[in-house]
Amino acid sequence: MLQGEGRETGRRLYAKTQIADLPPAIAERLAKTDFIVRSYMSGLAFVCWNTARDPAFSANHLLTHVAEDLLQSAVSLFALATESLGSVAKRELRFLIEASIKLCFVQQQGYNLTIADKLRQFEEVLWSQRISVQRNIKLWLLPEAMHPKFIEEVGRLYGVTSTFVHLTPAQIEERMALASQGRLPGRELPAEVDEFNQLISKGLAASLVLLFHSVPTHVAGEWLVETDGTSHDWYFAGSRFIAAIDSDFDYKHERQDKLAAVKAARVAKVSF
Predict the structure, then answer these.
(1) Rounded to whole angstroms, how far apart are CA atoms 185 and 179?
(2) For the purposes of burial, counting CB atoms within 10 Å of the CB of 145, is it exposed (0-12), middle (13-18) or buried (19 or more)?
(3) Which letter does DSSP use for residue 54 in this model?
(4) Alpha-carbon distance 189 to 193, whole Å?
(5) Residue 98 · residue 203 · CB < 8 Å
(6) What's the whole-model pTM score?
(7) Which sign does the torsion angle of CA 37, 43, 44, 45 carry?
(8) What are φ and ψ of residue 225, in 5° steps?
(9) Phi, psi of 169 (to 5 degrees)
(10) Tens-binned pLDDT, residue by residue, of the chain (272 aa)
(11) How far is Cα 87 from Cα 188, in angstroms, rounded to an integer?
(12) Residue 71 · residue 41 · CB < 8 Å
């Protein structure tokens, strides 16, 4: 890196970027990043709040303590993207996916165990960097035909984000290629922010699917189905997996007189 480029990068890292100061095309896309993250946070908050109605929640459910880590990682996605620290943001997404897998697996294997007992009994799983336990997660809210598709999606997302955890020749070669094109750090193209938004959309959707499978079934139903039977108007209604979970509640009485319209609206919203 040239000396002048180093000074510019240093100033950028130590000064908080204001969205209003960015080119309009980038600012617009980062506003979407913010919206995606806030949509995830609203779902996470509901899962915690609704499940916490169980008096045993604070003693038995890992979300009591893990939710804060999920929240911090989600918030960091927008903050890091705004500062053009996309590689770091992808590392946070990897942690979020890994934590969601482990939380779901442990809760399903020993829902009524105390947190202390869970930490002892599943210590090896929680320490491991491998996510093979995802294949033993029960996906009762998804149609059986979608189970392998979801497992494949999670594995792919984990693999993609894992490439940013350790320094690799591919990372260095990518930086070299960008430098040869005259691309400076912090000068993302709109298409690159679009790609990042697509990645976190899928990653956060996968986390939500896992969270819904770590708590009683009614939690997902109460979040996704409105009192009039329509589907919750939510960014993640655009996920094919969240849409599939929503369809699991088509049996509800409040949907029967409008089921065709609910199904059509649900299909129309799916985009990732």
Answers:
(1) 9
(2) exposed
(3) S
(4) 7
(5) no
(6) 0.88
(7) positive
(8) -105, 120
(9) -55, -35
(10) 444 444 454 445 445 788 888 899 999 999 999 999 999 999 999 999 999 999 999 999 999 999 999 999 999 999 999 998 888 999 999 999 999 999 999 999 999 999 999 999 999 999 998 888 999 999 999 999 999 999 999 999 999 999 887 667 776 777 677 667 766 555 688 999 999 999 999 999 999 999 999 999 999 999 999 999 999 999 999 999 999 999 999 999 999 999 999 999 999 999 99
(11) 12
(12) yes
Residue 73 tokens, joined: 């990682």
Q: Any idea which residue has 């969601």 for tokens? A: 100
Q: CA 78 to CA 68: how far, in whole Å?
A: 16
The pair of structure tokens assigned to 57 is: 């929640």
Amino acid at 201: S
Type of residue found at 186: G
